[in-house]
Design goal:
This protein starts with 19 loop residues before the first strand and ends in a 5-residue tail after the last helix. Strands 5-4-1-6-7-8 form a 6-stranded parallel sheet, with helices on both faces. Strands 2-3 form a two-stranded antiparallel ribbon. Helix content is 41%, strand content 12%. Strand 4, helix 6 and strand 5 form a beta-alpha-beta unit. The chain is an alpha/beta fold. The protein contains 9 helices and 8 strands.
């Protein structure tokens, strides 16, 4: 994480009311679908169950790793798994995923240049994800993104996860700002509900995993077709020239 003291005050950039941009992780900044599918199938194979597809895993991403494991087990054994089965499955999933967390995962096109531009404008940058902290930190370190962000709020940090707004509120408090001074970018209806409950502007990444409902069906401030749309939206909203 960046030291907050290294971030320029927003008033020095020409950006008046927005002080921070907060991001979801999987499906928004990074494409982790293949590695998550591999981890789920390692678990299934080790337990003697059939494998799951990427399309199935795509629908399960966004509610935390434990929920993904539970859904994968339900799909392969045809019933709700017991608590012991979920615990055993999660152990297998976790051990494999930590070893192979970045075998195929990459940032989406334009993400690196987009966050670099936002940081250069003096904005605080943060990640608010339902992904467990151990996974999120390992992934950010592997992709050399750790030093870009000022705050990380992960799925096991608080008692509740998105769509509850508590994680977004906590991130803003950590940065010393009001929720109205932050913008959240995600790819799911849970992201949208969390941001709206926190009274925070929200943008949706159209390339993300959650396509039900489609991004354009959600009542959001902007639908991003590409990462560069973030800087375009911000400049239009605040009269800021991104060049």
């Amino acid at each position: 994480m960046r030291h907050l003291s290294s971030v320029l005050p927003a008033q020095h950039t020409g950006i008046a009311d927005v002080r921070a941009i907060l991001f979801d992780l999987d499906g928004t900044l990074v494409d982790s679908l293949q590695d998550l599918t591999c981890a789920a199938n390692h678990m299934c194979s080790a337990l003697g169950h059939r494998k799951v597809s990427q399309d199935q895993v795509r629908r399960w991403i966004g509610h935390g790793a434990l929920r993904l494991v539970e859904r994968a087990l339900t799909a392969t054994i045809g019933r709700a798994p017991s608590e012991v089965e979920v615990t055993d499955g999660y152990t297998l999933f976790k051990d494999y995923y930590l070893r192979a967390i970045c075998d195929h995962t990459t940032t989406y096109p334009g993400v690196r240049s987009m966050v670099k531009q936002l940081g250069a404008w003096g904005l605080h940058l943060g990640i608010v994800t339902n992904k467990p902290r151990r996974f999120a930190e390992a992934l950010l370190e592997c992709l050399r993104l750790s030093q870009i962000f000022d705050v990380l709020v992960a799925g096991d940090d608080l008692a509740t996860m998105k769509p509850d707004p508590a994680m977004l509120i906590h991130a803003c408090r950590s940065l010393g700002i009001e929720t109205s001074q932050a913008v959240y970018i995600g790819d799911s209806s849970a992201d949208v509900r969390a941001a709206q409950a926190a009274q925070m502007p929200v943008l949706v990444a159209a390339w993300g995993y959650d396509q039900a409902p489609t991004p354009r069906d959600l009542k959001v401030d902007w639908v991003m077709e590409a990462a560069s749309d973030m800087t375009r939206w911000l400049s239009q909203r605040l009269g800021h020239d991104p060049r």
